[in-house]
Amino acid sequence: MILVRLYGTCCRTMAPACGSRAILNWMRRSGQRMTIADGPRFRFPRVGRPAGVGSPGSGSSGSHRLLCTKTTIGFRQQMDHTIPPKEFKWTPGNLISENFKLGENGHVCVVLNRQIQVPAHVVKLLWKNAAVRCAVDGGSNHWREFVVEQALTKRSSGNKESAPLEPLDVITGDFDSITEDTVDFFKTTPKIHTPDQDATDFTKAISVLQPVMTQRKVTDVVVFHDTSGRLDQVMANLNTLYKSQKDNCNVFLLSGDSVTWLLRPGKHTIQVPIDLVTSQRWCSLMPVGSTAHNVTTTGLKWNLYHAQMEFGGMVSTSNTYATEFVQVETDANLIWSMGAYGFEEKVRQTAKS
């Protein structure tokens, strides 16, 4: 018996074996361990070697061959830039400090079931420039509180010129968190029940919104959430970034002190607001879910060069900027998170008062 083991992303030198092409292809795809009986009935065709080289009767003394899977070949081609990496450009300044609008056709605003920590003026501007506005289950309770608070502030300040907040377009969820008062407050707002318990209300909301986004040619989703409190909910929100990744869907998690989004395999250019560079605000790259085998960065204070990143190994936290433009090239998904200077200052001032 000859024991054969295939590795999905590696090349291994193996003794010659026998069998049909169909069996070999199945073994390539499965990456499983199996035993194959020796005998004249089985012959394995050579892979990556001209016919007759190293084969019985050829006169060659070599009795081993090199087996490379499609995954290995594709990985090598991408890292050698035989296949150019897909390029992405990000301008978070449009989200946190300048235009408060993403994309030519606006963006989607989503309110999750967490207290809104983002400064009120930022929330109002992002809400005003949104093409679609959605609250997710208990997030509608927090949005009702925000709307009432802004109305009271407007009345007490005597600012009659301030325009009212645009109404919600839709509320989604399994509705186990929304209160009766909120249901009555938003009685004219359409509500879409999403009872599936195999996904979070956030994930289901993205699924509901995507057909509308496609119709209106909107690709960006701004999510008001909070990173404090329950770790499981924070991780579930990160999982939604992975589940919703598409060319026509970019999801940004906006909290009181950070902006977070997913960097897919490829080459990313991030234009950092200059005030974040000069104040040396923090940024991080996190390999959540799987190993990133090849990560190279420029523009950071502590750059990576063909680094392998994984939990239990290297991660990049508490980094900062050397220039306004940061480039990240990666062969796997990474979570990019960056501090938003104005938001953090606002939160600190609120806490002191």
Your description of this structure?
With 353 residues, the chain is α/β, with parallel strands linked by helices. It is 29% helix and 25% strand. The protein is built from ten helices and 19 strands. The protein has helices at residues 21-30, 70-79, 93-96, 120-128, 139-157, 180-185, 201-216, 231-243, 274-278, 341-352; strands at 2-5, 12-14, 33-36, 65-67, 87-90, 107-111, 130-136, 170-173, 191-193, 220-224, 250-254, 258-263, 266-271, 283-286, 292-298, 307-309, 316-319, 325-330, 334-339. It has a ten-stranded mixed sheet with strand order 9-8-7-6-10-11-12-19-14-17, with helices on both faces. The radius of gyration is 26 Å and the shape is globular. The relative contact order is 0.12. The model is unreliable at 1-19 and 32-73 (pLDDT under 50).
Quantity of strands, as a count: 19
How far apart the termini lie comes to 76 Å
Query: How would you sum up the major sheet?
Result: 10 strands, mixed
How are the strands ordered across the major sheet? 9-8-7-6-10-11-12-19-14-17
**Quaternary organisation:** single chain
Succession of helices and strands? EEHEEHEHEHEHEHEHEHEEEHEEEEEEH
Evaluate the radius of gyration.
Answer: 26 Å
Mean pLDDT: 79
Structural class: alpha/beta
Compose a concise summary of this entry.
The protein has helices spanning 21-30, 70-79, 93-96, 120-128, 139-157, 180-185, 201-216, 231-243, 274-278, 341-352, and strands spanning 2-5, 12-14, 33-36, 65-67, 87-90, 107-111, 130-136, 170-173, 191-193, 220-224, 250-254, 258-263, 266-271, 283-286, 292-298, 307-309, 316-319, 325-330, 334-339. It is of the alpha/beta class. It has a ten-stranded mixed sheet, sandwiched between helices. A five-stranded mixed sheet has the order 5-13-18-15-16, with no helix packed on it. A two-stranded antiparallel ribbon has the order 1-3.
